[in-house]
Amino acid sequence: METIAIIDDDIYIGDMLEKVLKKEGYGTLRAYSGTEACMLLERSRPDLILLDLMLPGLSGEEVLERIHGIPVIVVSAKVEVSDKVNLLLHGACDYLTKPFDIQELLARITVRFRERKVMDEKKVLRWKELEMDVQTHESWVSGQPVKMTRTEFAILKLLIQNPEQVVTRSVILERISRDTPDCTDNSLNVHISNLRKKLREAGGKDYIEAIWGIGFRLVDRKEKQS
């Protein structure tokens, strides 16, 4: 089930969106200010974000700058073409002006998820010397095959899809549970350790950095290894 974050300080609009989205089968998250939105994104990773611009605390524009790798549909009362162009050039994937037709919004959401599905189905993912075929579940380091368990493969796939970003433990567990429901918070460290060892043996260095108490990220050879 895809999860959509509603970032809007208008309680009426937020409640309406939440009701409609849940009826359509989506999970929802809520934030009522820019600051609260940033806190929400630190502990959760929704599949799509509906973002208002005129928020208390941090503005929607400031929140947008901190969002990476998640499609954002701006839903705002600002109607100037220059505002729309600027936001689309700085990270938003779509823009809908308030007041809006709910069917149009749902259609735009459907399109974004369709596009993401196409991207997810790309055959080969690459990061530095790492390559993985998401269809055959084969993986390589500098052309050398690396055998992985299903869970290890799912973890590496998520990290490559979010290059050099810290992916929290909770996000890893939430996302890979779709493919590997056997992975738990207690066993995650074991899976990560085994994956790091396999990549290190094949590539001669550590590709995964543990951020204590938060999560993990891929690291470049020039970065300090953990």
From TrEMBL:
Segments of the chain annotated as binding DNA: 122-220
GO cellular component, one term: protein-DNA complex
Domain OmpR/PhoB-type: 122-220
PROSITE patterns found in the cross-reference section: OMPR_PHOB, RESPONSE_REGULATORY
UniProt entry keywords in alphabetical sequence: DNA-binding, Phosphoprotein, Transcription, Transcription regulation
Gene Ontology terms for molecular function: phosphorelay response regulator activity; transcription cis-regulatory region binding
The keyword RNA-binding appears for this protein: no
GO biological process: regulation of DNA-templated transcription
Residue ranges of every copy of the Response regulatory domain listed in the record: 3-113
Modified residues (4-aspartylphosphate): 52
InterPro entries cross-referenced by the UniProt entry: CheY-like_superfamily, OmpR/PhoB-type_DNA-bd, Sig_transdc_resp-reg_receiver, WalR-like, WH-like_DNA-bd_sf
Pfam entry (one): Response_reg
Keyword Transcription regulation among record annotations: yes
Highest taxon, organism lineage: Bacteria
Function statement: May play the central regulatory role in sporulation. It may be an element of the effector pathway responsible for the activation of sporulation genes in response to nutritional stress. Spo0A may act in concert with spo0H (a sigma factor) to control the expression of some genes that are critical to the sporulation process.
Protein name, per record: Stage 0 sporulation protein A homolog
